[in-house]
Design brief:
The chain has 170 residues and is of the alpha/beta class. It is built from 6 helices and 5 strands.
Length: 170
């Protein structure tokens, strides 16, 4: 008698990704090594003023994700726990850069475990060279004329430079 077929283990990595950074990409790469499939869930983010539209953020994330089989990007609105459940996810991946992230992420994980007890939250820390990279810093530095090429992929850098040259302020 053969064992039942194992279902792929799906993880969801949610965020605004405004823009996606090399730190985010590092987390995705490492999550893909742990899970069969990774969905990068790009938040519509009604509560935030984003530099890039949802469509622009999705395009940048999809371009970044092309390098990994089994990784795709999808938009989401509402509770991320509902999105994970709807996609059949077993894990929610969250990135932790520093101790300052931990308190918020710990509380969020606790709340998500009450809303979706069948979904585990998995914390991953980025590689050392990306621990201090954040989308907020990247946006502000780029728009103020600083060089952020070392923090984002070339396609993201090009979008940031185009936005800067169009005169958008942080």
């Amino acid at each position: 008698m053969s064992a039942p077929a194992r279902r792929p283990v799906v993880a969801v990595y949610p965020g605004t990704f405004d823009p996606i950074t090399l730190g985010h990409e590092d987390i995705v790469r490492r999550a893909r090594e742990l899970f069969d499939e990774v969905i990068i869930a790009v938040a519509i983010a009604h509560h935030k003023k984003t530099l890039f539209s949802l469509e622009e953020r999705l395009a940048m994330v999809r371009e970044s994700a092309r390098q990994w089989p089994g990784v795709r990007a999808e938009p989401f609105d509402g509770l991320v726990s509902h999105f994970v459940q709807a996609k059949g996810g077993k894990a929610m991946v969250r990135g932790l850069r520093a101790v300052t992230d931990f308190d918020y992420e710990f509380q969020l994980a606790g709340m998500n475990s009450k809303l979706a007890p069948e979904v585990e939250t998995v914390f991953l820390t980025p590689s050392g060279r990306y621990q201090f990279v954040s989308s907020t810093f990247v946006r502000e530095i780029a728009l103020l004329g600083g060089d952020v090429a070392q923090f984002v992929s070339p396609h993201v850098w090009a979008k940031l430079m185009a936005r800067k040259n169009a005169g958008t302020k942080p």
